[in-house]
Amino acid sequence: MDEHVRLWKMEDVKIDNVTESVAALGIAGPHSANVLASLTDVPLSDDKFPFLHARKISVSGIPVTALRVSYTGELGWELYHDRKHTAALYSQLLRFGEPYIITDFGTYALNSLRIEKGFRLWGADMTVDTNPFEAGLGPFVRMKKPADFVGKAALQEILREGLSRKLVHLTVDAQEVDPEGNESVWCSDKVVGYTTSGSYGVQAEQSLAMAYLPMYLAIPGSEVQVELLGKLCRATVLPSAPVAVQIQQPSLRNDFPALLEDAPSPESEENADESGLFRMAEARGTCRVMCFHPCSNVTLPLMSQSEVETVIDEWALQTEQLGQTYTWVQVFENKGAIMGCSNPHPHCQIWASSFLPNEPRLKDKSQRAYFEKTGKPLLIDYVSRELKKNERVVLVSDHWVALVPFWAVWPYETMLVPKRHVTRLYELNAAEKSDLASIMRKLLTKYDNLFSTSFPYSMGWHGAPTGEYLNQDVLHWQLHATYLPPLLRSATVQKFMVGYEMLAQPQRDLTPEQAADTLRALSEVHYTQSSQADK
């Protein structure tokens, strides 16, 4: 700190050293917002408390300067406070984080997470001898800024001369020990650089490192060798950090919920009508909104495999947690203004209710009746027959089937069903979740390619009820997702469920077989990424 004060002594900058009196606690992870929300009245949603913003708030009655940032590359906050409150603040975070399995994390875990996301460490990946351009931080330098700033002339000179090296991300085939930094990097029997930092990436499931390499080697796919314990281990230059940054809040309470946890019961006299025609009951529950991606134009088919897997993990986690309390947990997505979606940011909603809604109640009844009659889960039997016919199947993977159901009424309605008997989302194993992410991306890419547009739809998951049903036999249930898209003949022509269809029954504009044939023939490469995508 004293060095910073000395360096900036001549500038219009004042630095007060408060290190001795101020402490910081970091809370990070997908559910850090939920934990913090239990301890403060300040709204923590993305629009009310954006990334890289700081606010003075009260956490469990303790004055805190909260900075929404995390060195882990995940959603998180740094809480700056008076040192005398550290123990109390820490205890409260642990207490209210217990339902989310909160735990301490140390330097090794922090280093692993930040290297996976490509976060630079001062004193290692960046020093006084490096410049922001070779460190990959050029986008954060506004060279066209009219006013002068410290170092501008030096940076202009660097740009004129061109870069001689660049910081890159490496995967390392380490055998006995992971890189830590300062290891020699070899190519063609000579040292071409040194690692700046390294670790085992837990999410990436491989050893990782960062290093400055000559420009001719700083190309994705280039192979070099990293020296570890006297042995040369093969390393490959990556195009970017191996794990995507997750800074948005995955699940937030809806600011305008349709269901309330403390909804009042109707007065007894309001239900006293002897005819029984007028009956009311409380509908209790909670409503949450879940963001998919930090960028508002990156929808599920445009997200990476790992990003979609993160979404699925959150679906499963929310279903399991809310299912401990509520009878029904409905995960659903309304995509596009045509479906009534008022917020273009990629997101879904999760509503949990104290009652079983009409649609799942009917499905529970029909699946139970079929199971009692045949001894087989209805959808398991149905999918096996569809696979034999292969008339309405769109995609088949190791663990999933995507098809246009025989009873489809929306033009390109589809259903996703696991091959294995699974009753609820959180029962999916890791392989099934990964495979689900893959087949979802393919199916939604086909949807977008159909009319070369970001395809609108309503989508939702149905599985066995929860709450009091957790102790009941639900073997008749089979987990499945349904996509209900309105577009019929073009990106602007949609099907309307009106008139006869509202008052009598839906009519089909094309057969399920025709819809399946059309979807099957479409490319799995998104139309925005390849001019060869089938239309």
From TrEMBL:
UniProt record, GO biological process: galactose catabolic process via UDP-galactose, Leloir pathway
Catalytic activity: alpha-D-galactose 1-phosphate + UDP-alpha-D-glucose = alpha-D-glucose 1-phosphate + UDP-alpha-D-galactose
GO molecular function, one term: zinc ion binding
Alphabetical UniProt keywords: Carbohydrate metabolism, Galactose metabolism, Metal-binding, Nucleotidyltransferase, Transferase, Zinc
Entry keyword Oxidoreductase: no
Segments forming domain Aminomethyltransferase C-terminal: 165-240
Cofactors that this protein relies on: Zn(2+)
The Galactose-1-phosphate uridyl transferase N-terminal domain, residue ranges: 253-357
Documented EC number(s): 2.7.7.12
GCVT N-terminal domain boundaries: 6-145
Annotated Pfam families: GalP_UDP_tr_C, GalP_UDP_transf, GCV_T, GCV_T_C
InterPro entries: GalP_UDPtransf1 (IPR001937), GalP_UDPtransf1_His-AS (IPR019779), GalP_Utransf_C (IPR005850), GalP_Utransf_N (IPR005849), GcvT/YgfZ_C (IPR029043), GcvT_C (IPR013977), GCVT_N (IPR006222), HIT-like_sf (IPR036265)
Nucleotidyltransferase keyword on record: yes
An example Gene Ontology CC term for this record: cytoplasm
UniProt cross-references to CDD domains, sorted A to Z: GalT
Domain Galactose-1-phosphate uridyl transferase C-terminal, residue spans: 364-530
Pathway(s) this gene product operates in, as recorded in its UniProt entry: Carbohydrate metabolism; galactose metabolism
PANTHER family named in the record: GALACTOSE-1-PHOSPHATE URIDYLYLTRANSFERASE
Family: Belongs to the GcvT family.
Protein name: Galactose-1-phosphate uridylyltransferase
